[in-house]
Amino acid sequence: MVPTPFTWRYGGRQVSLSGSFNGWREGIRLPLIEGSGTVFQIIIDLPPGCYQFRFLVDGTWRVDQQQICETDEHGIMNNIVLVNGNNFMFQDLNAAPFEASTSGNNEVMPSVGSSSGRLLSEPVEQLSDGDLDAFHRVLSTHLLSSTAYELIPKSGKVIALDIDVGVEEAFNVMYELGINSVPLWNESIGQMVGMLTASDFILVLLQLQRNRAMFADVDHEIRTISSWKAWKLQNYRDIVGTLHPIQRRPLIYAGPDESLWNAVLWILRNNISAVPIIQHSADGSFTHLLHIACLAGILRSACDICSHFEGRLGHVPLLQKPIGYIPIGTWAVNVRRSGGRALLTVHPNDPLSSALTLLLEAQISSVPVVDDAGNIINVYSRSDITALAKDSLYTRIQPEHMSVSQALEVINVTGRRTRYRTCTRFDSLYWVMQLLSEPDVRRIIVVEASTGRLEGVITLQDIFNYFCLGNSSRSPPSS
Description:
With about 475 residues, the protein is of the alpha+beta class. It has 11 helices and 24 strands. The protein has 3 domains: about 1-120, Sandwich (Immunoglobulin-like), CATH 2.60.40.10; about 150-300, CBS-domain (Roll); about 315-470, CBS-domain (Roll). The strands form 8 sheets. Strands 2, 3, 5, 6, 7, 8 and 9 form a 7-stranded antiparallel β-sheet that branches. The protein has a 4-stranded mixed β-sheet with strand order 18-24-23-22. A 3-stranded mixed β-sheet has the order 13-14-15. It is globular.
């Protein structure tokens, strides 16, 4: 028998261990090492051999990406330990990258006995139709069985702004209420006619950079929301410099009796952040705004999707697959080979105008802020722009002269929390969905565990896009 240590270095309240050495039975509790707040370890006597194992951290199965990893016959990622005579082989956190061998499913796996679990430029796994069908069936059935009405909280308020309200006043309202989009009401026709969003605020700020007198000069007649929307329709390409002009379209909304599945499809297919839930009277004499639905609210709805999946983990193996092996999200090219869009970043000293233009031109909701080594520092998102409405700060700054780090300081001063969490590419899809279900979290930053180096970004829209629109050939079951 060989004394073999098992170590979890990344914290938690309760950590246990299960593996092939005990038939995957009840977990073995790991004690916290004395004097450490994050390192758990236990030493087990094992006969020579090769063993698979996983850690159960606060009720969630995890693997340590700094140790050898391998996918079992069920598609679940496990750590590997080799016990050989009086020696055991574990991974050195500072060791060099492993030598990779390609398995039959086009997945780059570490060679057994290699010196590091770091995966470089790994291809995405080819998911089986069975895995995709199982996930799609459970998700679509759940969303079809719930209505938009169930999203409406028992207490709270929802507002709309008249199109004749001033632009500056509108942005102050958005800041004070902490909202990133608001429906627009046209009193003359008695209808909701559009949305004012954080993207409008970005465009105003960029236009102020070009012509600061524009919003102060009454002759320009760009003082109200309606005049701004009309001007933007004609001049969007000039502001952003993009080849993608915008087009006027009717308000996209959902009715209270529509399924959550329909609400998700409205958001995804139109590439918008939210849809208002609107009830019309039978004779069309009045319109009642009930709620604003977004993907985060749907994920955390009264019938909580994550809780719905929790009892079905054994029937939906895709939920336990590592997020780095699923074609979801945006990844650095040195981490994973994929045909997706490039992972865009900014540095703290880059001008704010560069970050804002990037958000609009690339049509992304956020951009990671990294240091010179590529380590994640923070994230700047479209919604963060509303912090500049405090005391009308945006009318007194020049985005090309304010750095990204200075803009982030404004957010911290105003008490706004960063809206992201981190994971590793070996964390499961289910774990990532749990993180995304937390309040204020809109994106997960994938980092290399020991360095904090940015490896990818996963958003709620990425997940819903892949499993709803990406499987359009799989028709949802009838409701």
